[in-house]
Design a protein that fits this description.
This protein has 12 helices and no strands. The chain is mostly helical.
């Protein structure tokens, strides 16, 4: 499967997942008050952070090693699943134990945010490892179908729970969707994956160590990007209110299409770049083609959101019209974040993880400083400008480092 077709396949899965996610949020906008919606936005940020921490970004290493060493692919998957499950369970226990201390500090004292997070974390880790294993095997359709099914089940569960009058329906639906998809994937794929049939405990931890050595630098860069992406809403909640965080999250939802496009092609580029890492000419061609594909999609998506944002907000709730004041700046920031994500996947695939770490560390620290400086006085626009300025600097540094790395390999 070529880069164009693979990217479009993963994009289809991401589109299905994002459409489901948007429907989920639209239902919440219609049923929750802004403060409760803001709390759920904080839950989603913490979910992304803790899921990444629990996997240590081994998902990327798993895709790479599975694509390169197909004979022992099942052993790598089993090692990653066991190791990351242990980490996720430890994190879940810590979250439950520290809930009385953490929740009041975040302004969510009576909220189920942290308990729900502790329950869903191990389930999400298992799901993510499985779909990235499929990507390493170039089974992009299975990965895409799983993502779409997860989003569809989540929306259906939310509607049924709301109809039944369940308390904390959004959080329960989130847990149920991962639980059902994990069961389905393991029933369908478990026998083919050879779970429970590969090697001893020592072999598992040896392979886990190999995955960690490759993935830890990637984890540092990915964690920096995810922390930076969530800082704006956390700082808004800290200096303003959870309601402000929720309104800002609506604008960020409009811009997620840029990340969706970039991540789809970045994940498709990963195994292709890994195979061609010793051929600089092929690497340049693969990267150039990928940039062309998602640049065209960027233009199309920009036209869509700026045409539909105002009528959608007017139809849902005019109280969210403030989104239009800072949407252009936030859209530009998300375009550059998508490009940064692509560049990071590229350098990770060719063994230059330190370049991604350097660019993303700059992104994180600049984003933190600019948010703390701009948000108290400029509110939403300050948060958007903070992420825009920090991403511009990170992309400039990342591009320069990639150019240097490819030139040295020529």
């Amino acid at each position: 499967m070529g880069i164009g077709k693979a990217g479009l396949t993963l994009l289809g899965g991401d589109v299905g997942a994002r459409v489901g996610g948007i429907l989920f949020k639209l239902i919440l906008l219609a049923t929750l008050n802004p403060a409760s919606y803001g709390e759920f936005a904080i839950f989603l940020i913490l979910f992304n952070w803790t899921t990444l921490a629990a996997t240590l970004n081994i998902t990327i290493g798993l895709t790479k090693f599975v694509s390169e060493k197909r004979v022992v692919a099942k052993a790598y998957y089993r090692a990653a699943l066991i190791g990351c499950s242990v980490i996720s369970l430890v994190l879940a226990v810590v979250l439950i134990g520290l809930t009385p201390q953490i929740s009041p500090a975040m302004g969510i004292k009576a909220s189920p945010v942290l308990p729900a997070l502790a329950i869903v974390l191990p389930l999400a880790v298992a799901f993510n490892l499985t779909i990235f294993y499929f990507r390493g095997l170039y089974r992009m359709r299975v990965s895409a179908a799983s993502q779409t099914a997860l989003a569809g089940v989540r929306v259906a569960a939310l509607l049924m729970l709301l109809w039944a009058g369940w308390k904390h329906s959004p959080y329960v639906a989130f847990v149920l969707s991962f639980l059902l998809l994990d069961v389905m994937l393991f029933l369908i794929a478990g026998p083919k994956l050879g779970l429970g049939t590969y090697g001893s405990g020592l072999g598992v931890w040896r392979l886990m160590r190999q995955l960690l050595l490759y993935s830890l630098p990637i984890f540092l860069s990915e964690m920096s990007r995810w922390l930076a992406r969530g800082l704006d809403r956390m700082v808004l909640a800290r200096f303003w209110t959870a309601t402000a965080s929720g309104i800002y999250d609506v604008a960020a939802t409009f811009c997620l299409g840029y990340m969706l496009i970039a991540n789809s092609y970045a994940n498709a580029l990963l195994p292709i770049a890994s195979k061609n890492q010793r051929n600089p000419d092929k690497l340049r061609v693969s990267l150039a083609r990928t940039l062309c594909y998602f640049a065209g999609l960027y233009v199309m998506y920009t036209m869509v959101i700026f045409s539909l944002a105002k009528p959608i907000l007017g139809m849902l709730n005019p109280a969210y019209m403030a989104v239009l004041d800072f949407l252009p700046a936030l859209a530009a920031a998300y375009m550059l974040m998508g490009l940064l994500s692509l560049l990071c996947h590229f350098v990770n695939a060719i063994g230059l993880q330190r370049y991604a770490v350097a660019a993303c560390a700059l992104f994180l620290f600049m984003c933190l400083g600019l948010n703390l400086y701009l948000v108290p006085s400029m509110k939403y626009l300050g948060a958007a400008l903070a992420i825009l300025g920090s991403t511009m600097a990170a992309v400039a540094v990342g591009t320069a480092l990639i150019w240097r790395g490819l030139k040295l390999r020529s």
